[in-house]
Amino acid sequence: MPLELNISESEANERVCQQLANMTLAEQVAQRLIVGLTPDAETTDWLDHPFFETGVGGFIFFQRDFKTLLPNTALGVAQLLADLRQRLPQDLPIPFLSIDQEGGLVEHLPPHMFPSLVSPMAVGKRVERNKASDAKNPTEYVAEVYDLMAYYLNMLGFNANFAPLLDVHGHDSNPVIGVRAFSDEPNKVIECAKIASERFNTRGLMAVGKHFPGHGFSTIDSHKSKPTLPVTDAEQQTFQWAVDAQMDALMIAHVHYPDWQPNETCPASLSRHVVTDTLRTRWAYSGIIMTDDMHMGGAIEELTPEAAAIQAVKAGNDMLIYRFGGPTEQSVHQALCQALESGELSRAEHEASVKRILLKKMSLPQQGPNLERVEKIMIPAAIQSVSSYAVEGAVSIEYHHIEQTQQKTGPILDPEDLIGLIAPD
Description:
The protein contains 14 helices and twelve strands. It has about 425 residues and is an alpha/beta fold. The strands form three sheets. The chain has an eight-stranded parallel β-barrel, surrounded by four helices. α1 (about 10-20) crosses α12. The model is unreliable at about 380-425 (pLDDT under 50).
């Protein structure tokens, strides 16, 4: 992704070095955390967020964060993101305002107010059908779907999306990936992921490929416990493509891979051999490396949150994700600061990670959402339909919406009709 600011790469590096020098250690460490808005799933108040003083690397948003918004509309979401930016120290870099918006089963924008899109596998199947019918541009639908998604995210003020998946669909008994994957063939995953990440970048979003080095063949949900998987040739192909393309960021799976970790029992996310020796050094990946959510069972079933965080940083992760933002995250932040002060963690590696983060932030739009623009294109809550897509034995429920900016009436549109209606060039 090119720099958003009109400056040279050398000047950007100089600015990043100056930013780093002006930050306290607490502020530097906070840049390495992406945290939730509230301390738990039940709390809705975020006004006393623990990272408003030190700043933070970013926020991750879930549907729960939007339930009590006033107004409970797209404008309310945009206003929330704008307010968060204002509450953080203005002399620090902008935060990553991030979300898991894959389409289909994983969407965290409220379905009553945003256009929900088909699952990645449904997108991949559409490409296959287009090719079988000798369509002139068989992948055009992919660009349309992810441009629409990126348009909305950018409009609302988001600047990072935890997508696309680079996992290859391994079997129908996978409890966590399934229709979230584009295909069971690596070349088809690459074809769709390439277009999706390009559309995200064009609309000012950081694209995050996941879950390195592959989660598509699992029979265990890493949200609950740590799976053990082989490193497959198929998924090495998809992630090698992402590295060759230097995708903005890659997310590491909370999965153990004996092929690469014969003398370890920890998940890849906590393994220096996987993160630093393999991905950063041998594969020569220069983008941001981040963990999956550090509250997941696969990450912390054998460690305290503080010990897991220190291990994740030792492994070489630039950023750690936490679904909440409360006492646990404060304790993790403090533990990382202490580990750096004591020398347990490398100061040089820490500064290199923070520089990567700051440089990436410099490539993103620096202004918040245009609230007047958002208000004009809000989607009426009543305009929605539900349809089912059967994909190789798995059924994902997809929600589709249209906006009626020109007093459009009549039946709910098919997703193909919706494309282009909402996302102007």
